[in-house]
Design brief:
seven-stranded mixed sheet; disordered N terminus; 10 helices; 2 domains; about 300 residues; Rossmann fold; 12 strands; elongated; five-stranded mixed sheet
Length: about 300
């Protein structure tokens, strides 16, 4: 399980940008699932080396899931900067593999299969005597024409609650700005509560952002949920529908705009959830009340829209 997102407790974390609201459990999970942006090979190495070194110092198993990077370059870079990668590989503490062998088994991406893979990887590391698994995953495959790649944002949203709040796992998702469209990068990085290497955007791009809630299971929608952000809204709805967490809260207090299509997606997602518990809404904008008056059938799987 090498290229799954990796996050560590090292000196770089002082610079991580976080949403620090929420419970201790939520904060702990947020600190272990990190989006890392970089634009140069030097920036990539500057994130890679301290992360791996910290894992070795703590006696953790470290895995790297390569996509755009040649796996041999990962090992060479570590050795060149003073990390004995070869010895770690021989003793099984370092595993360097590829996205094709992890995220994309069967030449497609399936969030549910990947969540299961995380659980098996943590169990395997524990069976080898490692109390924690630490992973870096290159996410550039999300920009390729791969079956299921459109579900990457859904996956990033779900794993905060379904993986990191449940497993001894630290993962940094490596996002290369040179390989991803700015709008897609904004949405994917925004799905993490902790970020490193985030550069100021030259121009603010209006749209919809979705992130997990740190304090309780659920998601926070911010910005404009309209036609221009339909893909992000669809991913959020898919995460709501597929999440295995029993109770889900949607915080809508950050929304500037919500159209009927986005509300219908959310309502249908709430009705498809495996749990029969309704999705609880907080901070619902006034327009949602008016929509539900016009289309009362949309409120079947929703609760608390009057708060």
């Amino acid at each position: 399980m090498a290229a799954l997102c990796a996050g560590s407790q090292n000196t770089r974390e002082g610079r991580l940008m976080r949403d620090v609201s929420g419970s201790a459990d939520g904060d702990a999970a947020a600190a272990r699932h990190v989006a890392v942006e970089y634009s140069t090979d030097d920036e990539w190495a500057a994130h890679l080396v301290p992360f791996v070194r910290a894992g070795f110092d703590r006696g953790e198993q470290v895995q790297y899931f390569a996509d755009a990077t040649d796996p041999r370059l990962v090992i060479h870079t570590l050795a060149e900067r003073g990390v004995d990668a070869d010895s770690a590989i021989r003793r099984g503490q370092l595993v360097v593999t590829t996205a094709d062998e992890t995220y994309l088994i069967g030449a497609r991406f399936d969030p549910d299969a990947m969540i299961g893979l995380w659980r098996r990887a943590v169990e395997a590391a524990a069976g080898q005597g490692y109390g924690n698994l630490r992973v870096i995953g290159e996410m550039s495959w999300g920009a390729r024409h791969i079956t299921g790649a459109e579900r990457l944002l859904e996956y990033e949203l779900r794993i905060h609650h379904e993986v990191f709040e449940q497993l001894p796992l630290t993962a940094w998702c490596f996002y290369d700005r040179r390989l991803l469209a700015p709008e897609a990068l904004d949405a994917l990085v925004g799905a993490h509560l902790t970020r490193a290497g985030t550069a100021p955007r030259p121009h603010a791009r209006p749209g919809l952002s979705v992130a997990p809630l740190a304090g309780r299971p659920g998601f926070r929608l911010s910005g404009s949920a309209g036609y221009e952000s339909r893909r992000v809204a669809a991913s959020a709805s898919a995460a709501i529908a597929a999440s295995t967490v029993k109770d889900i809260t949607l915080d809508l207090s950050g929304l500037d705009h919500l159209d009927v299509s986005a509300l219908a997606d959310i309502a249908r997602a709430a009705q498809r959830r495996p749990s029969e518990a309704p999705v609880r809404l907080v901070g619902a904008p006034p327009v949602l009340h008016r929509m539900l008056e016009l289309f009362p059938e949309l409120g079947a799987g929703l609760q608390g829209a009057d708060q």
